[in-house]
Amino acid sequence: MNLIATGNHAVAYGVKAARAEVIAAYPITPQTQIIEKLSEFIERGEMGAKFMRVESEHSAMAACIGASACGARTFTATSSQGLLYMSEMVFWAGLGSFPVVMAVVTRTLAPPWSIWNEHTDMLSQRDAGWIMMMCDSVQEAYDASIQAFRIAEDRRVRQPVMFGLDAFSLSHTSERLDPIGQEEADAFLPSPDGQWKVIDVQEPATYGNLVGPERMMEIRHSIMERVKESAKVIEEAASDFGRVSGRKQAGLVEEYRTSGAEVILVVAGASSGDAMDAADALRDEGVKAGVARLRVLRPFPSERLRETLKGCRAVAVMDRDYSFGSGGIIGHEVASATGVRPFNYIAGIGGRDLSVNDFAGIASDALRRAEAGNEGGEIWWGMKGYQEHLP
């Protein structure tokens, strides 16, 4: 069955196929369509889930944690200010190792108010103990919705998973969607059967939650080990889903024309396709360009990225985010992972459009700077007389 669906609706179809049992959410643009579609499925009897109408995003995640503690497969979705309001409970879910799944439709944080795309909201939660993935198409939004539960619920991981969709350019854009059958989804993602259940409502008990210094480091270390182990589980889930769906799946990093490339664009999210089109255009002009799409941001694919970028003359990292006083978040992570200071392009802030020509210009600009002997730096791209901060 082929459909035409938006990225938001693709997520809803994926969550339905995953047979989520509890959904708790609060509406916020541009995420609301995900929850609206899921509520339609439930009201029509097409989905046997409990829909919890809560008064805030903070309560939505609290409800998901409670349901997860009782062994239920849980889901929520949010954006921007909603994610920040939820942030306290995001850390409770991650550091408490509850396998909740959440879609984040990435949106600029206020002030000033904006409903347009930016990745700073999702990346602000990067230390919360969640596995973090980014989608580049409607199809991948659907695929990730199912794979996320598989990853979160794996006994080697048992950590929550969030996956990001770029506001409007993916969340509200209609593309072809090819769902898998329910039998295939059930085979790929068996019922959890309460395997991580920690609270029995038939035998209620109170648990003390205060931990002294003698145990906290060990608890954090155990989370570190599981998040690290999740890299293997993510690759396995992608491979298995590829066999089920008949579609090639990206694992941690999708490499596009990186072999022998002299300049590689490192990107994440829905604009990755434009970056790949730019690489094609530059190759036609004799410029050996490639793209490394980061599908997973936590755990950060350091080893894989080092191999991908080895030998290229210029690395151009595009950040649709910014950490004031530090710089592009992904740019810093790439530098830490590879030992090479990339050319870090801050672009698309507040939803500003990025075209194929922009990515071709970024790649050419990075190569020119490398040939001039520059060793990397921060460049704000797309402003009139764009500013730059170079050594």
How would you portray this structure in words?
The chain is of the alpha/beta class and 391 residues long. It folds into two domains: 3-245, Thiamin diphosphate (ThDP)-binding fold, Pyr/PP domains (Rossmann fold); 253-389, Rossmann fold (3-Layer(aba) Sandwich), CATH 3.40.50. The chain has twelve helices and 16 strands. It has helices at 7-17, 32-43, 57-69, 80-95, 120-123, 138-153, 182-188, 213-245, 272-284, 302-309, 329-338, 356-371; strands at 3-6, 22-25, 50-53, 74-78, 101-106, 131-134, 161-166, 174-177, 253-256, 263-267, 289-294, 296-298, 314-319, 343-346, 377-380, 388-389. It has a seven-stranded mixed β-sheet, with helices on both faces. Strand 10 (263-267), helix 9 (272-284) and strand 11 form a beta-alpha-beta unit.
CATH topology of the largest domain: Rossmann fold
Low-confidence blocks of residues: none
CATH architecture of the largest domain: 3-Layer(aba) Sandwich
What is the gyration radius calculated from CA atoms?
21 Å
Counting H and I runs of at least 4 residues, what is the number of helices?
Answer: 12
- The overall pLDDT average reads 95
Which structural class do the helices and strands define? alpha/beta
* Share of helical residues: 40-55%
Shape: globular
- Kindly state the number of beta strands: 16
Q: Quote the distance from N terminus to C terminus.
A: 55 Å
Note the main sheet.
Answer: 7 strands, mixed
Spell the H/E element sequence: EHEHEHEHEHEHEEHHEEHEEHEHEHEE
Enumerate the strands of the largest sheet in spatial order, edge to edge or round the barrel: 3-2-4-5-7-6-12
**Annotated CATH homologous superfamily of the largest domain:** Thiamin diphosphate (ThDP)-binding fold, Pyr/PP domains
Number of domains: 2
Strand content: 15-25%
The CATH class of the largest domain turns out to be Alpha Beta
